[in-house]
Amino acid sequence: MEVLLGLRPSILCCPLSTCQSKRRYFNLRPRASLNEGNDSFYQAAIERASLRLRESHSPDPLLVDPYVGCLLPSNSLKDMNQQLHPYCLATKFIDDKLLETIQSSDGLKQVVLLTDGLDTRSYRLNWPTSTLIFDICPTQVFRGAVQKLQDAGAKIPRGCMSFHIPSESFDIENVLRSKGFSGTRPSIWVFQGFPVVNLASFKDILSIVSNLAMKGCLFLGEIPVWLAETEVADLSATKTWLDNLFMSYGFRVKAIEYDEVARNLSKDSARRASGVGTSIIFVAEHLRFSDDQMETWRSEFQRIEEEGDEEGFEEL
Fold first, then answer.
1. What is the pTM of this model?
2. How many CB atoms lie within 10 A of CB 144?
3. pLDDT tens digits, the chain, 316 residues: what are they?
């Protein structure tokens, strides 16, 4: 289920003719409609929502999503499987890491979610006041979901703001900036459910995050193992690949095993997760300065240099 199939995003990358940045344009536009009954990406998003619904109604829920039911058919709980799914473990881990990081970090008010359009984190998590939430996802899925959520009474926590960033946008970076995102302020980024069909598309996402996130910011989430093109059972090779990939974009990454998450949550074997190995939970720290940080410092150095030249001229 974690592996997204079917649609191939057409990602266009064009270098900007400027000496200020190596930034590229990114178009994460799916080629087909995402709201058709036979659409494989939309069906994968529905399956993830179904897993959250079923976990919410289990006798000992790992997480509770009070809004997901409005996104699904009324018979979604039929033949409910009580077995804990790794997607739910990953979701719980991401939820907890998000809130823990935000609550323990002064000035961290920007959250960027790369999602499938049916994610409910904007509504169901207890965000601190003044948090800005940027949801990058397919427009057609988002529009249908947000209307259902609003009809069900779902609201963004008081004092917070949420912005939809269409994944179809030609320049994701500048659209984020136009909505109020700042690369000179701390941020945290989440990747779960966003449609990637090959390694090149995920590399483009890494590039976007690397360009916009300040040094020290976190990027966390869940990615399909098949991106690594290694044997699923070869955990060592997969971790080495992950290290090399993320470091090439300025991230120090750690892979988190599902069993480790389950142990930390004290989940017993009666509801042991099935299907572990098809995805990787990761937490990455950004080691580089953002483009906006570099531009700010470049401007400041230029100002100091110009002031120094003026003072020297006056002395002469």
1. 0.83
2. 16
3. 333 333 333 332 332 223 333 444 444 543 334 444 448 889 999 999 999 999 999 988 999 999 999 999 887 776 666 688 999 999 999 999 999 999 999 999 999 999 999 999 999 999 999 999 999 999 999 999 999 999 999 999 999 999 999 999 989 999 999 999 999 999 999 999 999 889 999 999 999 999 999 999 999 999 998 898 766 567 788 889 999 999 999 999 999 999 899 999 887 543 555 545 689 999 999 999 999 999 987 877 776 766 655 555 455 4
Nearest Cα to 291, choosing from 134, 135, 182? 182
Beta strand 279-286 pairing with 251-256: antiparallel
Rg (CA), the chain: 21
Query: Domains plus CATH for the chain?
Result: 84-297 (3.40.50.150)
CA–CA gap between residue 276 and residue 272 (Å, rounded): 10
String of DSSP letters for 32-93: S-SSSTT-HHHHHHHHHHHHHHHHHTSSS-S---SSGGGGS-TTTTTT---SPPHHHHHHHH
